[in-house]
Amino acid sequence: GIKVNKVVLTDLTRDHNYEIVVIPFNSQGTGPPSPPVAVYVGEAVPTGSPRAVDGEPVSATEVRLRWQAPQENMQNGDLLGYKIFYLATELAQDLSPEDKVEEELEVVPATYHSHSLVFLDKFTEYRIQLLAFNPAGDGPRSSPIIVKTLQGLPGPPSELRFSEITMTSLLVSWDPPKKRNGELVGYIVTYETAEQNERFSKQVKQKVSDTSLLVQTLEEEVTYTFTVRAETIDYGPAVKGNVTTGPQEGSPMRPKELTLGKSVSSVELHWLNGPSGKGPILGYYIQSKRKDDTRWNTVTKTGNGPLQEFTVSYQNLLPSTAYNFRVISYNKFGISYPAYSEDVVLTPSKLYLEYGYLQMKPFYRQTWFMVALAATSIIIIIMVIAVLCVKSKSYKYKQEAQKTLEESMAMDIDDRQQLAMELYRSRHSGGGGLGGTLGKRSTMSRKSHLVPPGPPMISKSPPRPSPASVAYHSDEESLKGYDENPDDSSVTEKPSEISSTDSQGSESENDSVRSDPHSFVNHYANVNDSLRQSWKRQKPVRNYSSYTDSEPEGSAVVSLNGGQIIMNNMARSRAPLPGFSSFV
């Protein structure tokens, strides 16, 4: 068919050469034949690839290969030789965009089972493959192997440049070599004067790991030769360049009329600018030199454009030293020639710098102000802390006092109500339970008035002192005397609260206690220790007599097991207790 582009010829005779041509045809006839191709029939191409392919680098430019022939049943006749293909996959050099990496080929006889590839690139990785071929054609390629050549000497650095050139220093920089040929360890920079003479003949070598070096302490307006070499296993070839210190082409002209002025704390420099050269002035080098020295030192380098004055503080100079000054302008092309001062400036002494100059500082930068400010701050902090502590304590004590007062008032009210109720019951029951009531008073004062009282019992506690004339007689208590540790129950009962009056009088009395802030309860609820000790030290007599002037009809006497309680219930008739002040 017209779409067929290949065909298999069979039944050919072995060991014969055939010439094969292809002739197209159609319905009108045949066309011209193709050029003839000779084919030897009798052998096939190898179907196996070389075995055990191995390679190792011998040097920076040579790789040694070893292999074995394909298996005999896969050779398909006698082999004519081997083809070696190798391609650089990782280069140790920078290639331009137009450079192309192509696969290379070498052919060796069939009797070879090793071969050396030479003239390879240094420190480069190669991919290598082999195949066997016979008269019928090429067999399949072997699996690729990767071999990297050894390191070699590097190429020279490129593009040596000089910048920031001053009268005594410059910055030299360069680019890494295009052919590194290994791992770069560093560089060695060598510089020397271009013209050897007695004055300038030194040679300096310096190893660096970066691609730039700031060189200082050069001589002014002297030409130097610089060489830079890269290092891998050793140093490679050098790149050279010459440079002269001082002004360059396109630099500004020197400043004019440099004058000096002294102040209490600094030196003031004034000058006039010259032409700026091929570019605008970017800044200035302000340099100083001691009178007995020969080398200029840079005090500062400005970078804020053209100036006509500058101030140098004495703090940047040595005390008691004579100085000369010079000013150098610069632009992007280089520096100008320096402008020198005719005057010499003598800096103040160290004593003046440490004390006299400090006195000229603003008050807020002087030592006394700093100390006073620190002391004032400490005092203010202490006062604030003290005020906060006092406020906290006062609030705490106020809360405690309020709580104590409220508890005392609540206990007094409960005690008075309970005592009045029990006295009322005792009178109606014939007075049999009064002693038990008085004995239980300290215990019942802590209970709610809603709880019914327990059975009456006689206590060992002494009677509570009150403004009323209350006398308690007991044989047993008479023997013991007055109790030194009475209970903590309230001692602020009024005689009207334990009298036999009606309940309306008791309620009015309780209301007066709650409403009057200067009542008996408020007066004695917070009794201090001194008052308490005063009435505790008073020893009661065995037979209390009622303190009455003309009120016999208002007294009530109750007998309890041989003792007596005399109650004076007349209005405004209250017997004072020992240790208590009288009140209305």
UniProtKB/TrEMBL annotation:
Bias (Pro residues): 452-466
Cross-referenced InterPro entries: FN3_dom, FN3_sf, Ig-like_fold
Compositionally biased spans, kind Basic and acidic residues: 473-483
Cellular component GO terms, alphabetical: membrane
Bias-annotated ranges (Polar residues): 488-507
Feature: compositional bias, Gly residues: 429-438
Pfam families named among the record's database cross-references: fn3
SMART domains reported for this sequence: FN3
Superkingdom of the source species: Eukaryota
Residue intervals of the Fibronectin type-III domain: 1-44, 49-152, 156-248, 251-350
GO terms classed as biological process: cell-cell adhesion
Segments of this protein annotated with the region Disordered: 426-555
Listed transmembrane segments: 368-390
Descriptive protein name: Fibronectin type-III domain-containing protein
UniProt organism field: Clastoptera arizonana (Arizona spittle bug)
Keywords for this protein: Disulfide bond, Membrane, Transmembrane, Transmembrane helix
